[in-house]
Amino acid sequence: MTRRRSANHAAASAVQHSAFSTRHLQTGTQHSPLCTPSEHRLSRRKLLGGAAVAGAAAVGGSLGLVDMLAAAESGAIKKKHKQVLFVWIDGGMSQYESWDPKPNTKFGGPFRAIPTSVPGIHVSELLPHSAKQMHHLSLVRGMCTKDNAHSSGVGRIQRGDPKNRGVVYPFFGSAVANFLGQGPSGLPPYVLIKPGSGGFLYQDAGFLGPKYGALAFGDGKPPENLLRSERVTTADDDLRNDLRRRANARFALSHRAEPVEAMDFVYDTARELMKRGDLFDEANFTAKDRERYGAGEFGRHMLLGRKMLEAGVTFVKVTSYGWDTHGDNFNGHANIMPKFDRAFAAIVEDLAERGMLDDVLVICLSEFGRTPRINGHVGRDHYPEAWSLVTTGTGIRRGITVGKTNELGTYVSGDEYDIGHLFHTWFAALGINSKGVEYDNHGQPLPLAHDDCFPIQELLA
Q: Per-residue confidence at 65, pLDDT binned at 50, 70, 90?
């Protein structure tokens, strides 16, 4: 059968027409301590009207940042294009079995603490590879976020928990894509590498509009129909796109510009992505890299994430599932942690060796940690009151710990940090003054992060 659409139209359609939400938000409901499968399943609802819906959403918000644009033009921010690697551990990694072990204590569990490349800092014995990279890393052990539900916690953490102002805030990936743009690569500025299906997550962008949503590569695969049909020549494809732009420009004369801009952006980035099919070719992964990152799903996805960063993608998010260990927590972490450890340590080592840590911000976190108390299923439940995350890269001090928990790990001892503090810190690390710049949502001024929080100066270089 003859294809009636050019490949870039098909690739753009994958961005415009396929959407899925990470979780349905629930309020005012009681949660069982055990999760249901539906809490970890992605819905696959199609967008009705495709481009029309995307266009309508684009009208919903924009960012007016006169000060930031002026700073960018003067080179104050964009001396070199900044990037972000965001490793999302979905379900809740146990801080006891990772970054804040408490061996030989009431709640510590069976695993030992081991020394790292930084004297005095110990991590779980399940992280031997990451322990060797500790001089590149910073641990935040004083997280206290107070939301113990997946359905609300995932959005709360990835949006930075701003105060409720009647709008849907963007995920961090969308915010960064908006501030820093595509950079010189021309590739989609915000990509997600995850198990399962792919598509376009316009919901991540909130009031910024679908232009800043996430393009998800399901199982690390490119969008369907990425390659142009052999029946369509490059010249024909260029003519079709020129006609599309002219039609869009004429449409914009009598309609709002935002939907047209979003549509043009999607098509243009899709065309650039078509040129980089090599990024997805696993034959290009060396045997050494395969061994270092691990042959499993997470290792492959992290290696693809490194390729995306090397290609110039602004924000690369890699998601790992299967961490909600309400039952058999210790065997669960003993199985999944080595896969994480190998891949995470490998990408940190590679970014450091390539000099990329000076310009790439690395973040690894969950929606919360896990309880000190072991439940009747030999598992740990949700625990946002005292947990840990790890970060490194541009603007971040390395080889340190920030915050601490008491000797049992039951609460934060000293300063507590909510996710808003980390958003202010990460914006500052990227050269964005989150205290001096506001979103302009069609005349509604909105802070970039929770206005009662502040950057953690101890964490900033």
A: very low
